[in-house]
Predict the structure.
Amino acid sequence: MSAQLTPNPMRGATPEPTPAGDATAFHRRFPDYQPTPLFDLPSIAETLGAGHFLVKDESDRLGLPAFKMLGAAWASYRALVDHLGHEPEWTTFEELSAALEPIRPITLATATDGNHGRAVASFARRIGVKARIFVPAGTSQSRIDAILGEGATCDVVDGSYDDAVARAGQDAGPDCLVVSDTSWEGYETIPAIVIEGYATIFAELTEQLAVSKLPLPDLVVIPMGVGALAGATSQWYRRSGIPANTVLLGVEPSSANCIQVSALAGELTEVPGPHLSIMAGLNCGLPSPVAWPWVSKGFDWFVAIDDIDAEDGVRALAEVGVVSGETGASSLGALLAIGDLSHFGLPENPTVLIISTEGATDPSFYEQMVGRTAAAVAINAPKCVVTQHVSGACPVARCPGTCR
Ligand SMILES: Cc1ncc(COP(=O)(O)O)c(C=O)c1O
């Protein structure tokens, strides 16, 4: 097995989250909000020896090819509201933009390895505020172009993702709000709100499973950079009302497995760079301290994989018509590299869930890996499970019925 799979020695009781508000209600106020599709893929289930293999597909989330807008927009909104001093009345983004007049000029700043920064920039554009995004050296030109395309400035920092985070943090001031998805000492509130924003994925999933009468997942596999998405996963699956035996597995590149190394050490531990994995969203050397209590206590297993494993995941999903980039497909790549599900103590015919966290965020590299463009792969896209089980108006909130 090329993958390094380790049980989490820190597993224990998770703390109670204290939400800043209803992130899902906020997302539903976007004019283009709709739930992302959920796929049930029998051929991959058979390969893995599972009863169901479910994929929540985040390749088209609020106009962007990754899930990150959920956290970026919610945290940006809460930061702006906090700066304004009260929650304004608004229905449209034009009204929200007008309500922010008293705090202009205002800029949103963040560091990113691509997706979070693009999402902050995109939300800033929607509400007419400026955005300043810092990326590490080596960020692909297509990711930089995507950020510039949202009307933001994009500075390349001579160093790693963690150096870019430090640089963005320096910009904080009365005219500049930092909206980071990772935390540091004295900067915890916003990253905690980013985590909350990701809950919308699981709220939708729960509705989609109920409507389509599919079982709850026995194993949930999550790609981990700083661990904010993993933190949200743990907050969802470790609360009451959810089967306590849902197994959570976190995936990292072997060159940036800071969460696995930290869990084995029993404390936050840095994995020094350079972090050059093709799993660009996971090239992080230090877990987010704010996510850590949930990730370190709520996850059962961690696995570190090589780039070649992620590529296998990309191609396996492309074969069944699902467009997923090298970070997004790392969860399937990990399961294929581990080889079988026997390690996890699952019931017979288990249901396995992955969140495909991005589409082809680097289109030319995607084509190189798969031998086809993302558009050519998507021609054979599967149908959302809800469409297969429900005729007429879809009961999932704001679902267009076709579920793409
Ligand atoms: C596509 C994608 N998936 C997963 C992750 C990991 O998220 P987190 O950094 O919250 O662990 C990222 C982070 O940038 C990402 O871009």
